[in-house]
Write a structure and sequence with these properties.
Layout lengths: L2 H7 L6 H22 L6 H8 L3 H7 L3 H24 L5 H17 L2 H9 L1 H10 L2 H20 L8 H17 L10 H12 L11
Length: about 210
């Protein structure tokens, strides 16, 4: 998770509950500010007002605006991965877990209110952010997928290989399709995405012994 977000949750026992609540309120307010005004017009002053805190309180937790926006992205990503975990738990085979997990996260990102708003009203901002400032969320997604691949390896459902580069390639592929929808590869429906995952993503993952 983004270090800036974790740092604000690491407080003394006596103030932990208040600090957690304040940090969450600030991130909630930033989320609403992004939906209302977009990335370009987001205002720390407005975020502080929405969160009912002083401006200095925001800056005590987040060094600058970009750090706060990164915390919003990481929190939303974490929530999406929780949805993926629920879907994965229902699948019997490793292949189905990988495919259905990819379908779930791809659909969730593509239909997320913040993603839709930014791509519709500020596409240039989306491109700039994904190319220059998306490191924390890319890293979070990569490490999340790599952890699942490692777990499958421990269960001898996949061969031994370095999970992180494979995971990052999959994450970056997904991001590119979300950012640029036009493609000769059908990706409009969940069935399209499912077929894409089976055709192009599963072959990237060494199976070894048994993939069950």
């Amino acid at each position: 998770m983004c270090h800036c977000y974790i740092r604000m949750l690491s407080v003394s026992p006596g103030s932990e509950r208040d600090t957690d609540a304040t940090t969450e309120r600030i991130v909630d307010a930033a989320y609403r500010e992004l939906l209302d005004f977009g990335v370009r017009r987001v205002s720390v002053d407005n975020i502080a007002k929405k969160a009912a805190v002083a401006r200095i309180t925001v800056y005590r937790r987040f060094a600058n605006r970009d750090e706060l926006l990164a915390a919003v992205a990481v929190r939303e990503g974490t929530r999406l991965f929780e949805r993926v975990d629920a879907v994965i738990a229902e699948q019997g085979s490793t292949a189905d877990q990988l495919v259905e997990g990819f379908v779930t996260i791809f659909h969730a990102v593509r239909t997320h209110p913040l993603v839709k708003r930014t791509l519709a009203s500020e596409p240039d901002v989306a491109v700039a952010w994904l190319t220059a400032q998306a490191g924390p969320i890319i890293g979070l997604a990569r490490d999340y997928l790599a952890a699942h691949l490692a777990d499958a390896q421990r269960r001898r459902r996949l061969a031994a290989f370095d999970q992180r580069p494979v995971a990052e390639l999959i994450v970056r592929l997904a991001a590119s399709f979300v950012l640029t929808a036009d493609s000769c590869i059908p990706m409009k429906t969940n069935d399209d995405v499912r077929a894409f995952a089976r055709t192009y993503l599963l072959p990237m993952i060494p199976t070894g012994g048994r993939r069950s």
